[in-house]
Amino acid sequence: MTEGAAPLDLVFAALSDPTRRAIITRLSQGPATAGELAEPLPISKPAVSQHLKVLERAGLITRTAHAQWRTCSLRTEPLDEAAAWVDKHLRDWQESFDALDERLREITKGKTP
User: Fold this and answer.
1) Which residues contact 61 (CB under 8 A, 6 or more apart)?
2) Looking at 1-113, which runs of residues are DSSP E strands?
3) Which pLDDT value is given to residue 112?
4) pTM
5) DSSP state for residue 109 in the 8-state scheme
6) Which residues of 53-86 are buried (b: 16+ CB within 10 A; e: fewer)?
7) What's the pLDDT at 57?
8) The sheet that has 32-33: what strands, in order across it?
9) How do residues 27-64 score in pLDDT, each as one tens digit?
């Protein structure tokens, strides 16, 4: 992903990885430290750190420091924007499919199988 990538591009790129989706799912239950996020994952802590950087760059998480602990929290606004994009296009695609279905019915009307 390039430096000047659009926010929605960054969100979809971040969500394309199953490990990052697992981290998002965990953070939907509440804030967690990087260590807590790494615990159930079958990857190294440095790899988790890299995933967290991608999520942070996409605006999906924030990281705050409290003493020696860095806590990660979910930001839902980018997910809401991605969901709105998908919903809009889903409606457009559904309208196209409905029109195609209606046209096929018109074409085959009166024909016997």
Assistant:
1) 23, 24, 27, 52, 55, 72, 73, 74, 75
2) 32-33, 61-66, 69-74
3) 56
4) 0.76
5) T
6) ebbeebbbbeeeeeeeeebbebeeebbeebeeee
7) 95
8) 32-33, 69-74, 61-66
9) 999 999 999 999 999 999 999 999 999 999 999 999 99
The neighbouring-strand residues paired with 72 are 32, 63
Locate 95 and state its tokens. Answer: 């309208």
Rounded CA gap, 89 and 100, in Å?
Answer: 16
**Residues paired with residue 62 on neighbouring β-strands, in sequence order:** 73
The full set of domains in the chain, from first to last, is 7-75 (1.10.10.10)
- How far apart are the C-alpha atoms of 54 and 29, rounded to whole Å? 20
